[in-house]
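A common beginner's mistake is to predict each chain separately and then try to dock the pieces by hand. The better habit, illustrated here, is to supply every component at once so that their relative placement is modeled jointly.
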Amino acid sequence: DADVTQTPRNRITKTGKRIMLECSQTKGHDRMYWYRQDPGLGLRLIYYSFDVKDINKGEISDGYSVSRQAQAKFSLSLESAIPNQTALYFCATSDSSQGPSYEQYFGPGTRLTVT
Amino acid sequence: AQSVAQPEDQVNVAEGNPLTVKCTYSVSGNPYLFWYVQYPNRGLQFLLKYITGDNLVKGSYGFEAEFNKSQTSFHLKKPSALVSDSALYFCAVRRSGAGSYQLTFGKGTKLSVIP
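With all components supplied together, the output reads:
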């Protein structure tokens, strides 16, 4: 979905390096999410943010941190990358004004490889 | 806790035949149920959702899904498969009601439509 963009799209990094993945959206949504996708495991939630001042841990937040710089921007950081963080990372957004049945809209993903 | 099971890792179907991708769920209370599709090198795209009411939900690209409360299932269906339907399909569930944010995904089912 072009309304949700992620940079970079692909990244190879070494163990121990700090890396930041960025997400921007033009949908005007207030809620943003970071997921990782591993083959055979589906998507798992890392962090979510309901507005700029409201950031929460998901089910697998260890080793990750996030920053919500503006309503439209949500960054994911790996402070010291390790090989088992090799995965496909997705940013998603949703609009709380849709009510509790809202769906989420996903970016194209960032493929991260930690060697 | 809530969970989603997609019992088939892969489904193969001949072009023009009907297709079914299975999903069962577990959630306390009433569910909101979603289907997403992921094409190669793309993010997840929303297909359809069940909120309440009619058990047969129609969505994008000719897909539909049938909600069965007694069997806790939400199977995705299409009357006539196209080669372009080949992709990875994810079922997801969220507990209904205000304050519920966690969207839990299944592990995904790879659909291959054979010409």
